[in-house]
Amino acid sequence: MSTILSVQNLKTRFTTFDGTVYAVNGVDFDLKQGETLAVVGESGSGKSVTMLSLLGLLPAESAAVSGEAYLQLESIEANLLGISKEQLNRIRGKHISIVFQDALRSLNPVMTVGEQISESLITHMGYNKKNARSRAVELLEDVGISYPEKRYYSYPHQFSGGMRQRAMIAIAIACEPEILIADEPTTALDVTIQTQIVDLTRRLQDKMGMTVIWITHDLGVVAGIADRVMVMYAGMPIEKAPVDELYENPQHPYTEGLLGAIPEIGETEQNRLISIGGAPPDLFAAPKHCQFAWRCPYVFDRCWREIPPYFEVGDGHFSKCFYDMNTQQARGEE
Amino acid sequence: MSEKKETAISTGLLIDEKADRSIAGKIAYVWRLLWRDKAGLLGLIMFLSVVFAAVFSPWITPHDPMQQNIEASKQAPVWGEEGTAEHILGTDSLGRDVLSRIIYGSRVSITVGFLGVMMAFTLGMIIGLISGYKGGRTDNIIMTLVNMILSLPYLVFVVFVAAILGNSLLNVILIFGFTDIPIFVRVTRGEVLRLREEGFIEAAKSIGQTTPKIIFHHIMPNLLGPLITLATFEMSAMIFYEAGLGFLGLSVPPTIPSWGNMLAMGRQYLTVYPWMSVYPGLAIVFTGFGMNLFGDWLRDAMDPRMRRKKK
Questions:
Q1: Domain A1-95+228-263+275-334 part of CATH 3.40.50.300
Q2: What is the ipTM of this complex?
Q3: Total H helices, total E strands in chain B
Q4: Do A291 and A301 touch, CB atoms closer than 8 A?
Q5: Model pTM?
Q6: What tens digit of pLDDT does each residue of B43-53 get?
Q7: Which residues of chain B are within 8 Å of residue A172 when distances are taken between CB atoms?
């Protein structure tokens, strides 16, 4: 499988009135064609900001983004972080699309749903209005909306939550992008609709051969869809692993804590839900040592001195931690 | 209304079921929206009757509004003492027919109101869009200017400019058009500041829409509802102000019949011959009331979220 997106040392900071916020502090990952990469982490861990940075969607006046992101597709090659807004406009929607969490906020209330799907077809694919309309109706059908002919003329507020998210997906896949970023698309939905949206995305992924980045804080969803998982904490990926490997053999204390916090059916009083003590660090200071040190049960002096590098702990399994879970000893030369 | 149709409306499906997208279908749709809100319909009828009077003045007036006739001066309306059917609403101190003058007076009011608001609307919206979307220094400069204009005592400023530029219809339109720009700028800018942070603008960017397209295709349609509503209210306000300016003798020259001029002239006879000023006054109230009713309906009708609600 070839790498189609390679992100290196992505950093994003925001200049605010209260000081600089270090939101993303060096993200590296490779995205392989056709896979599903899940990005997991708690709120504020920088998952969404990473993706918005890649697509240049952060406000230019307050956000500073650095690093490289090489897009290597058959039809186009570019460093997403080094090209002009015009060039980026030709990539967004055409090669990389994003589905946002809150579908109601992401749809224009005064335009019909159909118009919003057509729009992207007209912009990128050179469709005329009539062709775009018939294609948009097909897309509505593809994402499982009944009476697509009629629904084309509906406004977003006439759709249910699940239908809106389907419509958002229709907009995102309209130009058959190579990469689809799903930014917590199921968070605002109830469990049955969540499952439907997950299934829909998988079906479309198989049909169109898309590569998907699925952002979530729900490890239950991850198990069902991902090939690989990247766990983020305080703006850094702290563990990257194939999905099964991560669940069976978590190598970072944070991941271990997250997995311990998933409730299991048949749990008894004695087997209480584990929670990670403490709170995520203040992002107003640039990281100087392991950001999990405050909350880590295995912390030792080196953790307070430097940021751990990636240790390859298994096949395609990387952990940003000085502590070896298996041997219960420190690792790496000091 | 049949039960089935009623359910359809409450679920918001009626329009989709009757997908008639021809021009006739759209007109029928607007008519249904109007029929549902009788106050809006009444307002539209009132407003259109004034427009009708303005457009067809020469054909519907019984007399030449400028024709003086000292012998027939200060005549009471037809139902008053010594009133004649010749002059239904009586005559003024120079013997001119009040009804004819009111009908002709609508021309000034409608012209000033319409063109003045058009000017303020267009310029105000463009300036507001730039100010709100660009932000930063551009925004600061524009808003400083706007606040300066707003901080001028409005009536004193208008009177001052009118006194310098002199009395003419064009000057009145320009004065009102110009002094009304800040309101449109402020409303537009406020809306743009809110809208540009909306998720759907981010979403539009995420599918590669260019800045002009975002401004004109995504932001502007969201502005039209509030702005057109504001325009109807501003237009009725402008008609009031024009009358006020006319009352002070600073609007169109006294040779042109206008409601403000009529008020000014009838003032000295108010207690003796009230019809000279009461009827033009009623014409102003009628127009303003109609426009406000219509404006209220328009605000709801422009918003798809309000439109489908069952009244």
A1: yes
A2: 0.81
A3: 15, 0
A4: no
A5: 0.79
A6: 999 999 999 99
A7: 207
